C-alpha cells in the first residue's frame, strides 16, 4: 500500500495510532485468527476487539471473511509506503508534457502481454499483434514479459533555454500472470537511445484494488504499481534519490526536436519479470508518463 501525506490517507494513520491495533497487525502477520481468538490473546472483550477490527478494515489494512459462524481476519497488505511531498526546485523554470501509456511509437513484446482501456481489454490478451491496433491509443494499462515500449514527445525548450535537469515519472510494476507481490524484474530505461540505468521492480501487485482501477477490471489482475521518478542531474542519474548511473544532464543533447523514452525488459536480464505501465485511469496515481524539463 502506498500513501500520500494528505487527508485521503488519514484512515490508515488513525488505524495505526493504537497500541492494540498494532498488536493485532503483529498477530495477523503470523496467521489468520478469528475474533474470539484475537480477543482472548489481547485479553479484551469480543465487542471491543470488533471495534478495533472495524477500524483496521476501514483503512483496508486487514480483511475479514466468514468461515461458518466465525469471522476470520487476515492482513491485506505486506507493507505501507508513505510518500512525502516532492521537493520543489523553485529556482528553475519548468515545462512538462504527459504521454498516455498507449501512445507508444515503437514496440516489441513477448507474452504474457496485453492492453486495456478504462472500459475494456483491447483485443485478446497475450497476442502481441494487437499492440499495433489503432485502439491502443486508448490504453490506460499495458503489460509485457520481455521486450520494450518506446514513447516520443516534443522537446519544448527554445534554443536560448539551458536544460539543467530532467524528470521522468510513471507508475510501474513487474508483470506476472494474474499477480505476484514477490516477483522481481530488472527494467531498463533509455532516453534518446542513451541508457539511463536499470531498476528492479519488487513485484506485480493485487493485494488491494488500485485507487483508480476501473470497477470492471478483475480483482486478481495487477491493480497498481509504484510511482517512480528518474532525475537526470548535473551530478548523475537517480531513481527516487538512489543513483542508477553516472549519466549527467550535460551528456544529453538539449537541441533534439524529440525526446525518445524507452522502457525495456532485456532478454538477458538477471530478473526477467516483465513490466506493467499504468495510466491515469488505472493504479494509484492520477497521471500518465510525465516528462518535466527544468531550465534557466
Question: Care to describe what's here?
Answer:
This protein has helices spanning 10-16, 19-30, 35-42, 46-58; strands spanning 2-4, 33-34, 62-67, 70-75, 81-83, 93-99, 104-110, 114-116, 141-144, 146-154, 163-173, 185-191, 194-201, 226-233, 236-239, 242-245, 258-265, 275-278, 289-295. It has 296 residues and is mainly beta. It folds into two domains: 2-75, Orthogonal Bundle (Arc Repressor Mutant, subunit A), CATH 1.10.10.10; 86-295, Jelly Rolls. The strands form four sheets. Strands 6, 8, 9, 11, 14, 15, 16, 18 and 19 form a nine-stranded antiparallel β-sheet that branches. Strands 7-10-17-12-13 form a five-stranded antiparallel β-sheet, with no helix packed on it. A hairpin with a 2-residue loop joins strand 12 (185-191) and strand 13. Helix 1 (10-16) packs antiparallel against helix 4 (46-58). The radius of gyration is 22 Å and the shape is globular. It starts with a strand and ends with a strand. The model has no long low-confidence stretch (mean pLDDT 93). Pfam families: HTH_5. Keywords: DNA-binding, Transcription, Transcription regulation. Residues 1-95 form the HTH arsR-type domain.
Amino acid at each position: 500500500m502506498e500513501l500520500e501525506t494528505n487527508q485521503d490517507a488519514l484512515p490508515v494513520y488513525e488505524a495505526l495510532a493504537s497500541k492494540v491495533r498494532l498488536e493485532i497487525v503483529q498477530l495477523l502477520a503470523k496467521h489468520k485468527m478469528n475474533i474470539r481468538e484475537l480477543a482472548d490473546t489481547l485479553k479484551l472483550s469480543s465487542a471491543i476487539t470488533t471495534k478495533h477490527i472495524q477500524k483496521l478494515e476501514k483503512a483496508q489494512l486487514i480483511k475479514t471473511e466468514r468461515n461458518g459462524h466465525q469471522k476470520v481476519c487476515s492482513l491485506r497488505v505486506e507493507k505501507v509506503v508513505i510518500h512525502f511531498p516532492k521537493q520543489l526546485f523553485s529556482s528553475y523554470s519548468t515545462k512538462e508534457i504527459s504521454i498516455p501509456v498507449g501512445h507508444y511509437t515503437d514496440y516489441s513484446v513477448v507474452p504474457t502481454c496485453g492492453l486495456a482501456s478504462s472500459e475494456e481489454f483491447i483485443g485478446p490478451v497475450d497476442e502481441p499483434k494487437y499492440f499495433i491496433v489503432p485502439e491502443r491509443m486508448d490504453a490506460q494499462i499495458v503489460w509485457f514479459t520481455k521486450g520494450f515500449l518506446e514513447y516520443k514527445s516534443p522537446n519544448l525548450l527554445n534554443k536560448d533555454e539551458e536544460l539543467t535537469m530532467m524528470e521522468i515519472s510513471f507508475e510501474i510494476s513487474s508483470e506476472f500472470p494474474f499477480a505476484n507481490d514477490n516477483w522481481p524484474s530488472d527494467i531498463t530505461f533509455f532516453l534518446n537511445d542513451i541508457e539511463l540505468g536499470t531498476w528492479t521492480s519488487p513485484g506485480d501487485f493485487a493485494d488491494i484494488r488500485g485507487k483508480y482501477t476501473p470497477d470492471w477490471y478483475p480483482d486478481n489482475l495487477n491493480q497498481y504499481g509504484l510511482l517512480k521518478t528518474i532525475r537526470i542531474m548535473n551530478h548523475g542519474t537517480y531513481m527516487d534519490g538512489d543513483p542508477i548511473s553516472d549519466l549527467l544532464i550535460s551528456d544529453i543533447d538539449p537541441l533534439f526536436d524529440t525526446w525518445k523514452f524507452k522502457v525495456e525488459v532485456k532478454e538477458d536480464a538477471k530478473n526477467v519479470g516483465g513490466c506493467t505501465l499504468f495510466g491515469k485511469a488505472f493504479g494509484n496515481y492520477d497521471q500518465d508518463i510525465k516528462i518535466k524539463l527544468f531550465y534557466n
